[in-house]
Amino acid sequence: MPFTGGGSGSGRSALDQRRIIDAAVRFIDEHGLRMLTMQRLGAYLGVEGMALYRHVPGREALLDGVVESVVDELFGDPDVHLEAHAGWVDYLQRLAHGLRRIALAHPEVFPLVATRPPAAPWVRPPLRSLRWIESMLEVMTDAGFSDENAAAVYRAFSSFLLGYLLLEVSGRGVETGPVEEPDVTPMEDLAGYPLLQRLEPHLSVDVAAQDFEEALEALLDRVALLLPRRRRPPRLTEGK
Amino acid sequence: MPFTGGGSGSGRSALDQRRIIDAAVRFIDEHGLRMLTMQRLGAYLGVEGMALYRHVPGREALLDGVVESVVDELFGDPDVHLEAHAGWVDYLQRLAHGLRRIALAHPEVFPLVATRPPAAPWVRPPLRSLRWIESMLEVMTDAGFSDENAAAVYRAFSSFLLGYLLLEVSGRGVETGPVEEPDVTPMEDLAGYPLLQRLEPHLSVDVAAQDFEEALEALLDRVALLLPRRRRPPRLTEGK
DNA sequence: ACCTGAACACCGTTCAAGT
DNA sequence: ACCTGAACACCGTTCAAGT
Fold first, then answer.
1. Which domains does chain A have, with CATH numbers?
2. Which entry of A40, A106, A209, B121 is 20 to 30 Å from A58 by CA?
């Protein structure tokens, strides 16, 4: 029975929605999304699997809860602390770095964030916490961005984070387990791509952190141009 | 039996890998990824489902084939025609527009492109056709970019396309079918987000095409700065 | 050579029954 | 009130059997 052992120190006490979602996040972190099954998650919690349906509408809703929960970690991150920001540039930088930390902390969960169907059908759903979006729109409009530009910034910023972090996170977790992830048989042959071979060291090198800083700064510069008739805000000293 | 009727004019003749992958792409376009099942795909091809295993290693490998096939549509697109490009800027613009057309033509397939596990473990796998990556690296190095910068451009460009197109494509296909997509019960309430409500018209407005042009141009400007000691290439006239 | 029937181990989900 | 056993309809996959 390889999927037991839910909480480190937590009591073996009653199930509820919070505990189930938290367990699902830890389960995915440990075993990967493809291993998450209602019955296995039940076993992980010391319970029989169908018991979960008493607290959660079903598997799809559970996954939505997982995404929401992980994205909402932002609001508990002391290095983010969005309420006490020093201007919109600082706010967006904290947000970006906080979300990057989350993506790196939950690399198996993050692709789920990108691909779940939308919660509110009319809001393009990238980094899906409505709380997160609301907070960002508030800061941007308070900073003087028009409603239209605030929405445009939201789209640009979240598509940047989505693409960048998805790219960075994929290809991690190579050593997830002993023989798990059963090595899908590829249908194509990898030979015959000389430049891929020659540039291999540059493609696999891990310059992700620096790439991220540079791309983020370029985006913020671009956003600043939307602000009506003000000098570009002074460049901040490097965030942590 | 709602999942029959494979090819418009194609003969009902022998199965092979190509025909199966093409059918899978069309099936996903029509019914969505979540409906794709070996047995339903079999029925779609007028065959019994287990028959597919004679030509395809399994479901996972089939999905890899679907991704590869869709991304490789680029090489058949006459508006792309990457072999006859006029410099790297033109090449990247054609590539970007071609990939956007593909994403919009196969909105149900595109998220798969973003989330399949890597083919070659050392190449960060965004827009996964190795043929595509090889071609791009060749153009960039021929244009004078160092190996290191060519790899950096590949990462920046593909993460841009990944994030942007994933965002644009999600939230399409609302009317996929009559009562399909059984309206997952959300666990949270949508009320209490005043700015989301106020900016709703700006968030749902479809300015995607123009956004895309602007973000692409900004990225290309940024890439041009990597090219050693040359003036920025002249701005091209608006691509189609 | 290629497809099918039957079978296996496993899914998500429901619900009457236990405690 | 909360969990379990049994059941249902459906998965992916294998393989001996049909044609």
1. 17-175+208-225 (1.10.357.10)
2. A106
